[in-house]
Amino acid sequence: MAEEELPAVLILDIGGTHGVLEDLAALLKKHFHLITMKEFLGNKEEMSKKIQSIFVFECRPTIDRELLESLPNLKVIGNSGVGVDHLDLKMISSFGVKVTNTPHAVADPTADIGMALMLASARRLVEGNVLNFLGHRYFFSIPHFYCDRDDLSESIFGM
């Protein structure tokens, strides 16, 4: 399928501080003609008719009334994150545009971080690290201060 036949999707940019990751952009290019915000603003009249979708990555580009009014063929806004709190769903739906997201995209990493934080808290890991860097090397040589064996088995069993 030629690039002109592919549906056009508006993105903020590719790479950089807030742009779509380059690997992700390569995947998107297989299915869409990517139009960056810079290209769109440089030729709004022509580009606005082509864009059927907006891909929101890290809450960008900002979806406001002015942008929606300038995209007459917009059908869907794809949000790369879990939540859609940064989007005004009522306003977007008033333009007849659908919003999608990825609700389970970070479920496993969130659980992993939660477990790591609970274990670090139970083992006073941050406290020990701070004391270690302050020069209190004896901190890790006092097992009863750092880690109570009974507490350790009960906390892991409880999880």
TrEMBL record:
Listed name of the protein: HPPR reductase
Keyword Oxidoreductase carried by entry: yes
Organism of provenance: Certhia brachydactyla (short-toed tree-creeper)
Pfam families, per database record: 2-Hacid_dh
Gene3D superfamilies associated with the record: NAD(P)-binding Rossmann-like Domain
UniProt domain D-isomer specific 2-hydroxyacid dehydrogenase catalytic: residue ranges: 22-113
CC per GO annotation: cytosol
Key words of the record: Oxidoreductase
GO molecular function, one term: glyoxylate reductase (NADPH) activity
InterPro entries, per database record: D-isomer_2-hydroxyacid_DH (IPR050223), D-isomer_2_OHA_DH_cat_dom (IPR006139)
Presence of keyword Oxidoreductase: yes
